[in-house]
Design a protein that fits this description.
Length: 180
Amino acid sequence: IDGITKVKHAYFTYYRLTENLDKSLQYVPELILLYTENKGDVSHLFVELGEIYTKLKDYNKAEEYFAKAEKIIDEKQLSKLLLNRKRAFLEEEKGNFAKALELKGKELEIRKDEIDSSFTNNLANYELQYQTSKKETKIKPQQIELKKEKTNTNIAIFGIGFILLLSGCGFLFFRNRQKQ
């Protein structure tokens, strides 16, 4: 989505949130055109329009925009969540409380799936951390033992080198003494 579309949508949203709904609606034709040209997702715009028309008590228009949004929405949970929330508000405003309750139930089901998925991901992550920690705990003594062996090897090499150096110096000293 380009910058012009973002700015126009920001004005649309500002007027919608400040309850200046008529001013907000002035941006709609241009926004639909811009979103369509830029291959953007207009479903959220239709959901917002449904909300505006619900507040304006034009329930037929609200239902029309919610239906358009529903046709476009793909499997994005957030879009479905938003659509169900706004549709529930519409049905509540119309006095159709059974339908509003049904839509709230769908919203809760989407949230439940989202929470279950999040819980499963977190559980898998914790299991991975636990297994990693467990393996690190097993490896730690082996690493300490390797360091000890390496240190002992280095000491032995240094000791042998030092003895050879002393032997060499002693030999040279002894040889120089014999020549004198």
